[in-house]
Input
Amino acid sequence: MDHINLQNALLTRRQALALGGATGVGLNLGGLMRAQAADTNLGNSAIKSCVVLFYYGGPSHLDTFDMKPNAPDNIRGPFKSIATSVPGIRISEHQPHTSKIMHHVSVIRSMHHTNRLHDSASTETLTGRQSPQGDREEFSPIPQFFPSLGSSVTYMRRDQDHEVHHAALPWIFRNVVDTPCQGGGFLGSTYDPFRIDGDASKLAFKAEMFNRPSDLSIARLKQRQHLLERLATEPSLNALPQSIELKQLYGKAIELMQSERVAKALRIEEESDETRERYGIYPDKPKVGRVVAGHQLRGQNVLLARRLVEAEVPFINVYDFRVQGQNWDSHNDNFNEHKDRLLPPADKAYAALIEDLEDRGLLETTLVIALGEFGRTPKINGNAGRDHWPDCYSVALAGGGTKGGFMYGESDRLGAYPISNAVTPADLAATIFWRFGINHHAEIHDHLNRPYRLADGEPIKDVFV
Output
C-alpha cells in the first residue's frame, strides 16, 4: 500500500467512514444514543468471546441435525443417520467429525422467522430484527439501520480495553451489494467490525489497518492526529458530529498499527501442519483447483477464529460463503452438493474448532454458534433440490456454558414447523447478550433519538447449565 492509500485508509476506513457515513445514519454519537448495561449476575460464567459461523445460503436442517428417517421418500432424502458421542442423538452420515463432539453441542431444532429471501433473512439472523425494508432482496446499496449483533456487543462494552472488539472475515458477503446487516447501523461506523480479508490462493489473511510503509513512522501518524484534533477545535468544524467520529477512527487506526496480539493472530502460517490439517488445510496443496482451494479457505477461516479468540477478540463473525449461487443455496442437486462440496469442509473445521478450544481451556468462555439464515424445504423439488424454508430450521451452539449433548425444541414429523419451544432470531440475540452479561432489555437510540430494546426476544436459558 502506498503512502497516499494509507492516509486514505486511516481517514476513511473502507471509504464509507470518511464522513462518518454521509447518509446521516449514526452521526450523533455524543448524546443521542444511550444504553444501560446492567450486570445480569452471570459472574464468572459470563463468556469472553462469541464466534458466529454463518453458513450463507441456508443449510438443510433435514440433511444435518434434524433428519426424518420415517418421513416419505420425497421428504427424507437418501442420507442416513449415524450415532454420535451422545447416546440417542443421531445426525447426518456426512458429519462424521461433528458426530464425535456432540457431547459439546446443543442443537436448537425450532428456530423460525418469516423472511423467505436471503437478504432479509440474513438481516434478521445477524441483527435479531427484521429489516425495515421487509422481506426483500437488495439490488442497490442501502444504509444499514439496525446494528449487527457484534456491533451491539461492542457498543455496550465500549469501555472495555480490547485491541479489536469485533472482527469479521474473510469478506463482506453478497454478490451484488453488501447485505445491510454486517456493520454498526445507526450506532455509527465506529462500531463496524474490523475487516479481515482471506486469500485462498495464498492461504493467508490481511487487514488493511496493519499496513504501514516503512517511511511512515508512528510519530508522524501521531503528528497527523494532533493536526486533526487542532482542526476539530475550530468552531465551524467542531460542531460537526463527523469530526468526533473521525478522531475516534484515526486514533483507533494508530492503536491498531501498534498492536501485537491481533497482528500475530493473522499470521496463520505459524500454526503447525498438523493443526492446519486438522481444520482441513493442507499447506502443500494451496492451489489444487478452485474447489480444493475454497475448501481450505473455509477451514482456514475457522482456524483464524480460534486464533482471534486467543487474542481476546470478543466477537468474531465468520462468513462461510460470499455470493449467491455458490453457497448453501441448494435449489438444485441438494444431496450431492451437501455430500461432496458443502458438508465435508464445514464438518471438519467445526469439529476441529470445538476440540481445539476445549484442549486450550477456552471452550467454557467461548460461545460458538453455527447457523444459516434459514433451512430448506421438507419437500424435495423437481431438480433434486430443496428451496428456502424459514418456518423451521436448526442452530448449533457449543461452549459458553451450553449443556452439550442437548436437543432443544422439536419440529413436526416432516421438519416443517416447530411443535415445541419455538424460538426466533430475537431470542438468539437476547441469548448472546445475556451470555456476555449484558442486559438485553437495555435501550439504544437511533439518530432520531428513537429508543429500541437491545433485543426484542428472551434468552434461551434452558440450553445452558
